[in-house]
Amino acid sequence: MRNRLRLVLAVALFSALTVSAAGAQEANAEESWNALKPDVFGERPIADSSPLVRLDAPTRAEDAAMVPITIEVALPEGDPRTVKKLTLIVDENPAPVAATFTFGGERHDVTLGTRLRVNSYSYIRAIAELSDGGLHMSERFVKASGGCSAPALKDEEVALQNIGKMKLRVLEPTKQGDATKASRFSQLQLMIRHPNYSGLQMDQVTRLYIPAKFVDNIEVKQGDDLVFSMVGGISLSEDPAIQFSYEPSGKAIHVDAGDTDGRKFEGALKPAS
């Protein structure tokens, strides 16, 4: 009986210490953001926890090297502003700015999903820039660690043989969630085969660090019109996958992408209107 009681007390103490440590990390994380924010946005005010931006991410990630996130930006009916940019930030990553997306056209609604590396317990932030210059942010604290240094899932030789191969596919309209206009947009998923080496991963044979090599630019067009362009960093996961909303006009979708070694990749799809 005594042993069982000791075990229960030990488990309770360990759980309390874990919760306390996680809470301290979450509190201290604001210091990282306050130091980082001026480098990315200068002194521009940012509307925190903005109702215009919704970010979904797991509280505790199953795989720190592939943390799924989804962002919705939806302006109220009749709002004359448009969505111009979306910046994704992982506060505690060695290179915190994961990607910046610039949207074409008069976008009042944007839905975008991707997978990120998270190196240690950190806030993930989505900051939308509107046509009036206003910045609106949503954030989630994610418990994950080691994502930037996690070994690649594929053998390097195999990964480099398939580098740049693309797949574009149409996704069924989403009918769940809060039924915002953004969530009802037609969506495409773009997948690019690429190891996206972060520069922090070690070759398991040579025990040397693998040089950074990652997809750093993507441009998606619908006919001659820009859907979005992206500038990315090491925080995008291996084999980058981006799910995005678009207007199903029937015009062909064309993708141009490139990586830090100067390789160029392209793909196309003609979805039905």
From TrEMBL:
This is Quinoprotein dehydrogenase-associated SoxYZ-like carrier. Transmembrane segments: none annotated. InterPro entries: Fuse-rel_SoxYZ (IPR030831), Ig-like_fold (IPR013783), Ig_E-set (IPR014756), SoxY (IPR032711), SoxY_sf (IPR038162), SoxZ_dom (IPR014880). It comes from Ancylobacter pratisalsi. Residues 39-148 form the Ig-like SoxY domain. Residues 1-24 form the signal peptide. Residues 179-268 form the Sulphur oxidation protein SoxZ domain. Keywords: Signal. Pfam families: SoxY, SoxZ.
